[in-house]
Amino acid sequence: MNKQANKVWLGVGIILENAQGDILMMKRKAVHGKGTYSIPGGAVDAGEGIEQAALRELKEETGLEAQQLQCLGLTNNLQTYTTEGVHVASMIFYSNTFSGTLCCKEPHKHENLGWYNIKSLPSPLFEASKLALDLMRNSLSSTSEHDCIVQGRDGQKRINECAIQEGRLAPR
After folding, report:
1. How far is the CA of 82 from the CAs of 11, 67, 145, 166, in angstroms?
2. Quick one: average pLDDT of 147-166?
3. CA separation (Å) from 66 to 25, 52, 57?
4. Do 16 and 118 touch, CB atoms closer than 8 A?
5. Sign of CA dihedral 118, 72, 161, 152
6. What is the mean pLDDT of the chain?
7. Partner of 51 at 20 to 30 A CA spacing, among 60, 75, 95, 108?
8. What global pTM score does this model have?
9. CA 110, CA 40: separation in Å to the nearest integer?
10. How far apart are CA 4 and CA 172, in angstroms?
């Protein structure tokens, strides 16, 4: 049996939107999600803050640094678990404020890094990225500053008035 099948991993993703409304995406070359298009992101390291992990992954993969992150919610990536035996829950962030020079800094893991029109995204999409984009479409215009959305294959659940804290999801 796959040793990873008994664990749920915590991931992060950042939806980065430029001034033209395009979304930063890349094609995955690694085994996990190979051949699918993804927003920047990856695993949270032990002892690392969740937001810090998202910022680190963005810089490691693209050379960009985001500011003014907004937490959109959590995705529960069950399709990936079904197809690959890897269960990841991903905290999704959004920013349209960033600096740096765009560069594919991990060419052994990604290719086709670039800005893609939100209305004509490349396919296939990595499951966590598809769920993240669903969160973005549904949450940026319809949630308060402290709402948290959990997106899964069965739809969305809104947790009103919550804050993300290290180690737990705490009601306010």
Report:
1. 17, 35, 33, 28
2. 50
3. 15, 11, 11
4. no
5. positive
6. 83
7. 108
8. 0.82
9. 10
10. 33
Q: Are 103 and 24 in contact (CB under 8 A)?
A: no
Are 16 and 58 in contact by the 8 Å Cβ rule? The answer is yes
Amino acid identity of residue 31, one-letter, is V
Measuring CA to CA, how many Å separate 53 from each of 56, 131, 147, 150, 164? 5, 19, 21, 19, 14
Amino acid at the residue 132? A
Which is it for strands 168-171 and 162-165: parallel, antiparallel or unpaired? antiparallel
Q: Which amino acid is at 76?
A: N
Q: How far apart are CA 19 and CA 145, in angstroms?
A: 22
pLDDT for 101 equals 97
Look up residue 65 and give its two tokens: 């640094």
CA distance 78 to 74: 13
Q: Give tens-digit pLDDT for 44-68.
A: 999 898 999 999 999 999 999 999 9
